[in-house]
Amino acid sequence: MKIFTRKDEGDWTDLGGGNRRRILLHTDELMMVEFAFEDGGVGAPHSHPHVQASYVAQGRFEVTVGDRTDVLSAGDSFIVPSNVVHGVVALEAGRLVDSFTPHRADFLA
């Protein structure tokens, strides 16, 4: 099991629309993923059974979780309960660091 990762490790996956992601670390119970967005990039509304905690590492995002929307900046964070529809719009280029429990097997495929 990998315990540490460095800032330049991990392969980026192009998600289209100027967005990409890379898996930082994972176990069966937990996964940490970095997402990079270009200015105006959209994380389309979606849901999944995983609980998600997200940290805004850089930039500003309009974040919608369920029926709530707010603008978050670097240093802010949010949580997404299981099966709640959520999405983001990058108001400027930025990065999110998301943690999922359990891990996202679909990201490993």
Automatic annotation (TrEMBL):
Keywords: Dioxygenase, Oxidoreductase. Residues 35-92 form the Cupin type-2 domain. It comes from the Bacteria. SUPFAM superfamilies: RmlC-like cupins. One of its GO terms (molecular function) is dioxygenase activity. The keyword Nucleus does not apply. CDD domains: cupin_KdgF. InterPro entries: Bacilysin_H2HPP_isomerase, Cupin_2, KdgF, RmlC-like_jellyroll, RmlC_Cupin_sf. PANTHER family: H2HPP ISOMERASE. This is Quercetin dioxygenase-like cupin family protein. It comes from Pseudorhizobium flavum.
